[in-house]
Amino acid sequence: MTTGVPGLTELWSRFENWLAKHAPGDYESLRQGCPGADIKRLEDSLGFSLHEDVRTTLELHNGVTIRRASTEPGAFLLGYSLLDIDGILEAHRDLVSMVEDAREEGEVDLVVGCIADMQWVPLARNISGDLLFVDHRHHHLGEIGEISFGDSEYRMLWPRMDLMLVDLCHSVESGAPVTSVPRVPVLYEGRMLEWHIRPPQQVS
């Protein structure tokens, strides 16, 4: 079915080209893509097949160089850094542990599908430990969600990764806020991208 939206590889290339020109520190933080054997190792550990968007992203880039401080580049996805395969597995194990603890404590309704789920595949993490993930549940397949630990429920930010990248590309190219959250792109020291919360519009 034709949607009018460019393919994911083309969209990643468009976003990366903008980073290379305007935020070189972020661009240089991108790591080389994963071989198929590593992606299979990830799927075997998860226990299910990866959504094609996650697979494509890992084939392009196995995450970014790990940040040690907020002044280091690499958090160009709304302040989140792309995870490599080992980072995905670590973050997923944390989600699995939360689900298992909830089952033992009789708190499934408060946790599963709200703040953790075994079928959420972490995509990126910020320096506080919050996550962006790709939903692998049947009725939510491919959605991009945000877990902010401390909130009682996750937020669905985009229905698909290609739409996430369309939104991010438009935002960095025009300076407009992304559509899913009130965040605007700001360049820091001409080397990395930050996302600042836009204050609410004043009503005159």
TrEMBL record:
Pfam families: SMI1_KNR4
Domain Knr4/Smi1-like: 35-161
Protein name: SMI1/KNR4 family protein
Annotated source species: Streptomyces sp. R08
